[in-house]
Design a protein that fits this description.
By secondary structure, the protein is an alpha/beta fold. Helices cover 19% and strands 31% of the residues. The chain contains nine helices and 30 strands. The strands form seven sheets. The protein has an eight-stranded parallel barrel. The protein has a six-stranded antiparallel beta sheet with strand order 3-2-4-9-6-7, with no helix packed on it. The chain is globular, with a radius of gyration of 24 Å. 48% of the residues are buried. The structure holds ligand CKX. Ligand CKX binds next to helix 4.
Length: 607
Amino acid sequence: MSAGLYPIQSITRRVVDLSGIWNFQFDPEGTGKKEKWTHGLPSPTTMPVPSSFADLFTDKESKEYTGDFWYEKELFIPKEWENMDLSLRFEAAAHRATVYINGSKSGFHEGGFLPFSVSLNKTVKFGEPNLVCVKVNNELFEDCLPVGRTVTLADGRKMAKGYFDFFNYSGLIRPVKLVAVPKKHIVDYSLNYVLFDNCAEVNYSITNNYKNGIVTTIEIYDATGRLITSSEGLEGSLSVSNVKLWDVNNPYLYTFRFRIVDGDFVVDEYIDQAGIRTFEIVGSEFLLNNKPVYLKGFGKHEDSDISGRSLNLNVLKRDFELMKWIGANSIRSAYYPHSEETLRLADREGILVINEVAAVGMMASTLNFFDASQGSQTRFFAKETTPKLFEKHLSQLEELIRRDKNRACVIAWCVANEPETTDDEARPYFEKIFSKAKESDPQKRPLTFTSLMTATPDKCKCAELCDFISLNRYYGWYVFGGNEVMMAENVFKQEFQGWTMRIQEKPIVIAEYGADTNAGTHKLPGVMWSEEYQDEYLSLCHRVFDSQPRVRGEQVWVFADFMTGEGIMRVDGNKKGIFTRNRQPKAAAFLLKNRWKNLRDGFKSEE
Ligand code: CKX
C-alpha cells in the first residue's frame, strides 16, 4: 500500500497522531514471531515514539543493539469511522518493519526514511481496543539502503557495520498516525509551473481511487484566504495572474484545495500549501524564477543529542533559525530523505533543498571517508549483491519523488552520496537510476550525485549523467592537511581545470568541504582540530571557489557535529560541524555569516 498523501484534517478527513510512550522489547534471538509477540510483547519496557532507542539506555548492548525489536500499542477506533478507509501511516521505520494488527500481518516496508501505510479495514474492531505490534529490524546489508553489512560477534551479538560515517540510529524515528479518509478519496496530486511575466500557468493532475460519475475540483487561494482561481477535472491548467512567486527571501505559499464533489455534497477534501516557482539550469546558471541563484549552505543530518535521528521539532526550529541567522539559503538532506516536517518547514522558511535518497555506502568500506581520500577501490558496482540493491534504490527514489514532488523548496534530487563511480559497472547502473528519476518527477528537477574524492575528472565514469556536478572535496583536511595545507589550494584548483575541460557548461556545487574542529580548542598558529584551523581551511576553500566561475554553490560539511560509529578518527562523533551538536556556534559560524550575508543571491552571474 503506498504511503498516501501527508495526513491532514479536513471536512472529510481525520488524523490521530499516536506519538507517546509505546511498549518495546528487543528480540535478540529473532524468535518473537514464533513466540506470538504478534499478539502482545511478553516483557516489554517503555519507549517513546518517535525516538531512536540507541541513546536512551545506559548499557552498551542496548546502544549498539542490532537485530529485531518490537513496539506495541493499543489503538481505539470510534464506531462512527466504520464506513471510512482506515490506515496506519508510519512516517519512518528504520530500516524495515512488519506491522501486525490484532495478531495478523498487515504490512511490510523497507526503507528507513520514507513513509508507508498499512490498511486497517480488514483487521480492526470498532468501539473497542485493537493491538498494534510492529517488528522493526536495523540490520545493514550490501543489497539494502543505506549500505553496510552485519556481522556476528564472538559473544553471539549482531553488529551493524555501515559503509557510511553516521551512527546507525533506528526505530520508529518519526510519527505514526491513524488516518481516516472517505472510501472514495483523492490519493495523489502533482503540480508544475510555467512563468510568463507576472503570471503563472499552474499545470495540475489529480488521482482518485474512484473514477465513475464523480467531479473533481481544484481551487487556489492566496495567503489571505482569497480564492484566486479554480477548475474542474482530473488534470488541466490554471492561470494565476500577479503571481506571488515562492523565493528564499519571500517563501510565499498558496493554498490548494482539492475536492471530490457529488452535487453539493463534498465526498472528499484534501488541502495543501505549495509555493509557485520554477527552478532550472541554463548553461552554468541555477535559475530560480528565471533569476540566477548561488547556493550557500550545508550538508545536514537529522541528528541531535538523545533524540538521535528521530524527529525533534524543537531542534528543527532551532536549525532553521540558525540557517537564517548565518545567511544560508540551502541544505542537502544528507544522506537520506529527511522528515516531511523538515521539507514543509523549508517551504515555509524559504530554504532550498537538494533532496537525497538513502543511497549511501556504495563503496564497500567502513572507513570510506579515509579510504576514499587514500584512493582505494572496492569495485562496489561489480558485486553480485548490486542488482538487488539497484531495485531497492529505484523504488526508494520513486517513493521519495512521490513524497516531495510538490514541495517548492525541493530544487534537485541527489540520487546517491559518494558512490564508487570509478567502476565501469557504475555507468549502466546510474543511467537507469537517472532516467527513472527524470521520468518520475512532474517538475523535471535537476539531478546529481555527490562525487567521491577518488572520482576525479579523469576517473569518474558517470559525471555526464548529472545536470550539475556535486563535489565532496577535502583538500586541506584528508589530503594536504596540517603542515602541507599550503599545497591544498593549488591542487584543488588543478582539479577544477580537469572538470572545466571534461564538462563544458554545467554548474558545479561543492557539496562537501569541512574540517574536524573541537569547539573551544584555540591555537595560534592554527593547527588541525582547532577553531582557527577551521577558519583558515574554509577561507582557503572559498578562495578556490571564488576563482572558479563554474562554482555556483557551496555547502559546508556539516551544519552541526553529529554522531558516528566509534573509531580512532572519530572523537565522540564527527566534529566538522559549524555548530556544535547542541546548536551553538564555533568561530567558523561568524566567518560564514560574514561571507554569506555579503554574497548576493546571483553571485557570479552577469546580472
Ligand atoms: N564524506 C572524504 C561522507 C560523510 C563523512 C565525510 C567526513 C566524508 C568525507 C569523505 O558522511 O562524514 O569524513 O567527514
